[in-house]
Amino acid sequence: MDSLDLSLPAPELTVVLCDVESVSGSETALADLVESALSDVPHLSVDRDGDTVVARTSLARAERVVVAGHIDTVLLGDNLPCRVEDGRIHGCGTTDMKSGVAVALRLAAHLPAPNRDVTYVFYDHEEVEAEKNGLGRVARDHADWLAGDFAVLMEPTNARVEGGCQGTLRADVVLRGHRSHSARSWMGDNAVHAAGEVLRRLAAYEAEQVEIDGLVYREGLNAVGISGGVAGNVIPDECVVSVNYRFAPSRSEDEAATVVRDVLDGFDVRVVDSAPGALPGLSHPAAAAFVEMVGREPLPKFGWTDVARFSALGVPAVNYGPGEPSVAHQREEYCDIAPILECEEKMTAWLS
Amino acid sequence: MDSLDLSLPAPELTVVLCDVESVSGSETALADLVESALSDVPHLSVDRDGDTVVARTSLARAERVVVAGHIDTVLLGDNLPCRVEDGRIHGCGTTDMKSGVAVALRLAAHLPAPNRDVTYVFYDHEEVEAEKNGLGRVARDHADWLAGDFAVLMEPTNARVEGGCQGTLRADVVLRGHRSHSARSWMGDNAVHAAGEVLRRLAAYEAEQVEIDGLVYREGLNAVGISGGVAGNVIPDECVVSVNYRFAPSRSEDEAATVVRDVLDGFDVRVVDSAPGALPGLSHPAAAAFVEMVGREPLPKFGWTDVARFSALGVPAVNYGPGEPSVAHQREEYCDIAPILECEEKMTAWLS
Q1: Angstrom distance (rounded) from CA B45 to CA B40
Q2: Predicted confidence (pLDDT) per residue in B106-152, tens digit
Q3: Left if phi > 0, otherwise alpha if psi is -120 to 50, otherwise beta: which for A329?
Q4: B72 is catalytic
Q5: B181-229: per-residue pLDDT in tens?
Q6: CA geometry: angle at B18 spanning B13 and B19, to 5°?
Q7: Which residues pair with B319 in a beta bridge?
Q8: Is B197 helix (H, G, I), strand (E, B) or coil?
Q9: DSSP 8-class letter at A98
Q10: Are B150 and B66 in contact (CB under 8 A)?
């Protein structure tokens, strides 16, 4: 294909975008098409870093909003080219998230004078290790490209606003004992038995529900793994309980670590990694207008998404896109046409 | 070497036996030497099965006792040929258990008219998987060769009588739940958390101490392993706690399984394998005489040993040998000369 035709309706454009395969690491062809098409749009200035393309209006509006989507997909499931049937587009990338990218490209091309300045971000490497993430790379190397008052990440949400996202922290709780032959167990000190109290506290812990901007973030503190044992005839001298804490975006990573340490007071708690959440920012005027325009009750986002990268830059962000999240990464991936049209209409109204 | 010289004192014979390498699976050369040497002894009749050699007196005594030892060793630790220094023999097999074998060979050769008929058993494959064990093979194929009123297994015990042995049972306790994304943990059911109560009961369980023939067998019920977990962001749907129960030889395997099931009532307990213990049989006249002659307080044997194979054939058995058990299977393996001489002297007195 030589060029993208941004005059195509968003559903047709979704099909075109999906049929240009762009598994993570192979986004260059699609990024070239996006860059070329946007460079032809007179009201946009375009930047590129790797396979991330950033286009923006410069109308000196009082507010700037960011509309972002990743252009890579998970591995193909033998489900391309796309098949359209009964108002539904089937194929890899339809829901996650080229339907959202299609809407963003349409807005970029067809809104020469939006009521807020808009920065459109099309980025690479979202579906792989965090360190490769194109949005993260741009945040490190060109943070100014992502500046704004509010961001919309067009991940699949069934055309509802899902605000912010919760943070996540992983910690290992390490129990130590002494080995002995299990025929003389009283000579040892059983580290696996010691894990019982850790599990009891985790099971008894009542996770908080934290309300922010009218959204209730429901936290969770769980063992996600446990391992211990040397051999069938040895009293184990070590047991490790892996814990995952999902915390409301009002808490910092340090505060989250303190919660875990308090619950497991007296145990050897080692934080392995953590990522902060993202505040929904729904009290911001641009966000409030957006939510009102979408016209559905906004929901909190529980899972971690790239909105947290915007939040880390001081830009409140929400998830909002036409896709059906439950079919993402599935061989049966699809996206209905109606929410694609609805998203484009709502976003257009918001920016007009 | 062409032949074993059974006129050598037991310590020298120990050195000779150790210097004929016989790692499990490579016992043939040593078994040939043992068979040949015993065949030259006029008061013995000799049988062989694989690399196990059985020799016996047939004096129509009122009692028959079995004296047994394995002729294989664990892998060499670069510690042969033997080195003798300051009354101590260093080298692979010295303690476990060619010093005991040397004593048994000396008794076989030099006691033409023992006060009890004696069956001497020198067997292969003790240091490897149970199904290869030569004593087990003979018990299956020639149980009559092992008939007797009492057995002495000359495993290392520091020249003390260690009576019988405890049984052992392994069971898996399987906890089931439901997976969910850990960001929505309330949609799942955490199988690792459920293991907390299993560990609590195991930690709280007070193992029994069972007295048999004046020996106190101290039981133990322990988690020896635990595993669960799918990924750092998934609520685990399965957790398995591996449990090991060491039980007094007065309990059957079925009774042992009932104890474990009672302690873990309400949980899915799956018995993986078990092996019965061995009663010490110290009330038997031959055993009582043996203990009296050894002249030290007998001890219970906690770990499982091949005495259980005799017990399964209805032959009470004890462990008694010159070796130091704590250096078995170590590169630093050694055996002192004094207990070798003491064992030979005591056994000779008992059988004279």
Answers
A1: 10
A2: 999 999 999 999 999 999 999 888 889 999 999 999 999 999 999 99
A3: left
A4: yes
A5: 888 899 899 999 999 999 999 999 999 999 999 999 999 999 999 999 9
A6: 100
A7: B153, B162
A8: helix
A9: I
A10: yes
CA of A103 vs chain B CAs: smallest distance (Å) = 28
Structure tokens at A293: 């325009």
- What does residue B110 show for φ and ψ, rounded to 5 degrees? -110, 5
Given the residues B117, B126, B219, B333, select the one marked as catalytic: B126
First to last CA, chain A: 32
Q: Which of B135, B122, B127 is nearest to B67 (CA)?
A: B122
Q: How far is Cα B328 from Cα B332, in angstroms, rounded to an integer? A: 8
Beta carbons of B219 and B259 less than 8 angstroms apart? no
ipTM above 0.85 for this complex: no
Q: Are B215 and B287 in contact (CB under 8 A)?
A: no
Task: Quote the CA–CA distance of B121 and B135 in Å, as a whole number.
Answer: 8
For residue A129, the tally of other CB atoms under 10 A from its CB is 8
Per the CB < 8 A criterion, the answer to whether B30 and B16 are in contact is: no
Mutation pick from A185, A197, A221 vs chain B, by most beta carbons of B within 10 Å, is: A185
Identify the CA nearest to A62 among candidates A151, A148, A145, A142.
A148
* Residue A303 pLDDT class (50, 70, 90 cuts): confident
Q: Using the beta-carbon criterion (under 8 Å), do B225 and A236 form an inter-chain contact?
A: yes
Q: Which amino acid is at B199?
A: L
Nearest-angstrom CA–CA distance, B37 and B48: 13
Q: What is the C-alpha to C-alpha distance for residues A294 and A262, in angstroms, rounded to an integer? A: 41
